[in-house]
Amino acid sequence: MAWSREDMCRRAAMELQNGYYVNLGIGMPTLVANYVPKGISVILQSENGMLGMGPFPSPNEVDPDLINAGKQTISELPESVYFDSAMSFAMIRGNHMDLSILGALQVAENGDLANWMIPGKMVKGMGGAMDLVAGAKKVIVLMDHNAKDGSSKLVKSCSLPLTGAGVVDLIITDLGVFSCKSGNMYLEECAEGVSISEIKVRTEANFIY
User: Fold this and answer.
1) How far apart are CA 169 and CA 141, in angstroms?
2) How far apart, in whole angstroms, are the C-alpha atoms of residue 186 and residue 152?
């Protein structure tokens, strides 16, 4: 048995600390906002120009003008502030984000990250991921352990174009939690009901446990 997406987001939320400024990437990472532990106050930043994002609204509370970087409707808080893209990326590039949680296509055992394109497939652009992994103080990847074809997304070396070299600190997959330190990958925690032997079979990267 592996972790569900809700389990993965709940585990990622355990890495949040009081007062953190946090950027949540498009897709599954946005759901981490639903699992912020009680007593912990974090400030969520959206790279399209909002600081202090509120929770996802109920259907009768949707405001089409309030969206995050993934074009999902969100809500505002009394302390929410808005600004242009230049200010947003000045925050990111100025190392003001304590934590960035984002998805990935591949993570190498040395912490290299590939998450912005697959060669041959049309992409709209690289987005802000390169800025986020370079500017955030800590980078967490939240992703399925294996791709749809069964191949491992934790690899010895990334075959896809890199978003950043050696930038990943922690990886949370449906099979467990891994850290990247000094060029090596470490298995820190297995998902409930998942054995180390199963993780070995489903992982290309070398890891220490």
Assistant:
1) 8
2) 16
Q: Does residue 140 contact residue 101 with C-beta atoms inside 8 Å?
A: yes
DSSP conformational letter for 152: B
The CATH class given to the 5-201 domain equals alpha beta
Query: How far apart, in Å, do the first and last CA atoms of the chain sit?
Result: 20
180/170 Cα distance (integer angstroms): 6
Give the residue ranges of DSSP H helices in the chain.
5-13, 85-93, 129-135, 196-201
pLDDT in tens, 162-198: 999 999 999 999 999 999 999 999 999 999 999 999 9
Would residue 188 show up in a list of annotated catalytic residues for this protein? no
64-100 pLDDT per residue, tens: 999 988 889 999 999 999 999 899 999 999 999 999 9
CA distance 89 to 91: 5
Strand partners, 50: 46, 82
- Would the pLDDT of 125 be above 90? no
Contact 29, 101 (CB under 8 A): yes
- Nearest-CA neighbor of 168 among 193, 138, 209, 189? 138
Q: What angle do CA 35, 40, 43 make, to 5 degrees?
A: 85
As a whole-number percent, the residues of the chain with pLDDT over 70 amount to 97
| Marked catalytic residue, from 6, 47, 109, 192 | 47
What is the Cα 131 distance to its own chain's centre? 14
Angle, CA of 50, 25 and 186, to the nearest 5° = 140
